[in-house]
Amino acid sequence: DVERSRGLGDVYKRQVRVRIEYAKELLLRTDLKMPFVAERCGYSYVERFTVSFKSNTGLTPSQYRKRYRV
User: Fold this and answer.
1) 26 with 37: CB under 8 angstroms?
2) CA-to-CA distance for 11 and 5, rounded, in angstroms?
3) What average pLDDT does the structure give for the chain?
4) Exposed (0-12), middle (13-18) or buried (19+): which is 65, by Cβ within 10 Å?
5) Are 7 and 47 in contact (CB under 8 A)?
6) Cα(10)–Cα(16) distance, rounded to whole angstroms?
7) Whole-number Å distance between alpha carbons of 66 and 68
8) pLDDT at position 22
9) How far apart are CA 60 and CA 56, in angstroms?
10) Would you call 44 helix, strand, or coil by DSSP?
11) What is the distance between the alpha carbons of residues 37 and 8, in angstroms, rounded to a whole number?
């Protein structure tokens, strides 16, 4: 059971990484407002998206967009 739960944790972490990478693309390539970015990345709540994004990148989505958008 421990091995199985560890495997599921890895799947969850990978899913979060994929969502965050997609969010980065949307933030840099579109003018979508945060609730729409969150929704497209599979988050029901923009607050949860913001917390997840910041814990994975060190920046809020808005900060990321401002810093890296050309």
Assistant:
1) yes
2) 10
3) 93
4) buried
5) no
6) 10
7) 6
8) 98
9) 10
10) coil
11) 26
Residue closest to 36 by CA, chosen among 8, 69, 65, 14: 65
Question: For the chain, which residues score pLDDT lower than 70?
Answer: 1-6
Is the Cβ–Cβ distance between 52 and 19 less than 8 Å? yes
pTM above 0.90, yes or no: no
**What tokens appear for 2 in the block?**
């421990």
Among residues 56, 68, 60, the alpha carbon closest in space to that of 19 is found at: 56
| Residue 9 neighbours by CB under 8 Å, 6+ apart | none
Phi, psi of 4 (to 5 degrees): -65, -45
Distances (CA, A) of 10 to 5, 13, 16, 37: 9, 5, 10, 24
Taking alpha carbons only, the member of 41, 39, 34 closest to residue 20 is 41
